[in-house]
Amino acid sequence: MSEETKYQILSHLDEPTRYYGFTLDDLALWTVVILLVVASPNKITMTLLGLSFKKGLGYVKKGNPPSYLLLLAYWYLPSWLTQYYIKNLPASYKRLWMA
């Protein structure tokens, strides 16, 4: 571990973990895009589709906290899908907000 990364101070406490310089959602997006480009005969179309998804992802994440996509997934995806990565919360349709 180099001296620069040993004492790295994060700019925010909720700054997401980075893998190879990418956040987890960017890494997942680019992994899917690369697999589609490799597997598809329409490489230019898949590349343009991946770039448009990246632009849309940036639009959704702009001005929101790093965990915003996780919250969107919790509220809008089915509970059988979200129970694998959000274990200690009830399903979103069972939540009741009291004012």
Summary of the model, kept short:
This protein has helices at residues 3-6, 24-39, 43-61, 68-76, 79-82, and strands spanning 18-19, 22-23. It is mostly helical and 99 residues long.
Describe this structure in words.
- The chain is 53% helix and 4% strand.
- The protein is extended, with a radius of gyration of 17 Å.
- A hairpin with a 2-residue loop joins strand 1 (18-19) and strand 2.
- The longest helix has 19 residues, at 43-61.
- With 99 residues, it is mainly alpha-helical.
- The protein has helices spanning 3-6, 24-39, 43-61, 68-76, 79-82; strands at 18-19, 22-23.
- The chain is built from five helices and two strands; from the N terminus they run αββαααα.
- The mean pLDDT is 80.
- Strands 1-2 form a two-stranded antiparallel sheet.
Topology:
Blueprint: H1 3-6, E1 18-19, E2 22-23, H2 24-39, H3 43-61, H4 68-76, H5 79-82
Helix pairs in contact: 2-3
Radius of gyration: 17 Å
Number of domains: 2
Strand fraction: under 5%
Count of strand segments: 2
Overall outline: extended
Instruction: Give a quick account of the main beta sheet: strands, pairing sense, barrel closure.
Output: 2 strands, antiparallel
Mean pLDDT: 80
- Helical fraction equals 40-55%
SS element count, helices: 5
Coarse structural class: mainly alpha
Q: If strands are numbered along the chain, what order do they take across the biggest sheet?
A: 1-2
